[in-house]
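To illustrate the input format used throughout this study, we show a single complete record. The first block contains the structure-token representation of the backbone; no residue identities are included at this stage. The design step must infer an amino acid for every position from geometry alone.
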């Protein structure tokens, strides 16, 4: 939050660098596109933010209002000013970073330190904080889609060390194009080769279960769901045939079909060492996630929430009736 003009470009860049180093996404309103009124957009961005940086240098009245709005909402706010005399009377006792425009590297360092301290105090839950910039904490920004973050499907497979379980409608992303199909097979083989005990499990709806197909047609607002589901099953059958006919891969790629799978989620490296993460993707990896944002759970940082998800899917995977795809041919 600051005036946008040629005189502030260097300062805003220093702020952007600091937030990037602290693993926050810097969102500048003049760099976003919307058809709504500018004031409405600013209010919305403030409401969605976990951290606001406000430069009140020059006593710009719009910036003063935005700072007041953010503090009224209880937002974590870093207050900046060049000249201490520019601070309004009622905020003179607030923690403030003063800076010199000729020493912006110092400003960057101060903002980074402060942002990291705030970041360490943040606590996220799936119900009230679904959009954030905490890449190595719990959640991931998904204003466009999770595919534009370090937590996209293929990046997760490339980082995995032991075990991946993919559930729900994420199969559509993997099988929706020849490019994705080819890349998935390559990443899967790479995972198995670098980690001899690794495995990949898929939980998906049975294309022959009418009520599951109807339910997801309504949720996803498409009549093409059954066709897409059938195409995914056929593709995964090809992979099962490929991997199960080779001793070093046999039994490590498992696909199970259920009457219903409740939520699209991807678990990576669940373990007693608590190094796992879970990516919850209500719209799958391929669609816009404005109305149904994705989030990432860290097993280490949110153990109870993570374990509650894991236990539910572990019960479904091991105890609920299912049809497992089996190898049909040898290569």
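Output of the design step:
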């Amino acid at each position: 939050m600051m005036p946008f003009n040629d005189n502030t470009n260097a300062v805003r860049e220093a702020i952007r660098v600091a937030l990037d180093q602290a693993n926050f996404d810097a969102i500048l309103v003049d760099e976003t596109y919307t058809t709504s009124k500018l004031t409405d957009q600013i209010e919305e961005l403030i409401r969605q933010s976990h951290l606001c940086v406000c430069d009140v240098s020059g006593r710009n009245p719009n910036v003063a209002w935005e700072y007041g709005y953010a503090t009224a909402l209880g937002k974590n706010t870093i207050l900046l000013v060049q000249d201490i005399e520019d601070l309004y009377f009622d905020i003179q006792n607030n923690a403030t970073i003063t800076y010199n425009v000729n020493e912006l590297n110092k400003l960057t360092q101060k903002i980074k330190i402060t942002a990291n301290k705030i970041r360490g105090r943040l606590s996220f839950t799936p119900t009230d904080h679904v959009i954030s910039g905490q890449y190595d904490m719990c959640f991931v920004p998904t204003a466009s889609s999770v595919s534009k973050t370090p937590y996209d499907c293929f990046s997760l497979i490339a980082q995995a060390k032991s075990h991946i379980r993919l559930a729900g409608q994420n199969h559509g992303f993997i099988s929706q194009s020849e490019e994705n199909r080819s890349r998935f097979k390559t990443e899967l083989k790479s995972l198995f080769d670098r980690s001899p005990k690794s495995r990949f499990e898929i939980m998906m709806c049975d294309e022959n279960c009418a009520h599951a197909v109807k339910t997801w047609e309504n949720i996803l607002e498409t009549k093409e769901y059954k066709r897409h589901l059938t195409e995914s099953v056929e593709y995964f059958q090809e992979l099962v045939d490929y991997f199960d006919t080779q001793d070093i891969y046999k039994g490590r790629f498992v696909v199970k079909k259920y009457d219903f799978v409740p939520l699209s989620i991807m678990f990576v490296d669940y373990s007693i060492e608590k190094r796992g993460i879970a990516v919850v993707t209500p719209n799958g990896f391929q669609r816009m996630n404005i109305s149904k944002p994705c989030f990432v759970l860290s097993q280490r940082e949110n153990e109870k929430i993570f374990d509650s998800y894991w236990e539910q899917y572990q019960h479904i995977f091991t105890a609920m009736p299912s049809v497992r795809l089996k190898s049909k041919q040898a290569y």
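Structural context for interpreting the output: Residues 123-144, 284-293 have pLDDT under 50 and may be disordered. The chain has two domains: 6-121, 146-324.
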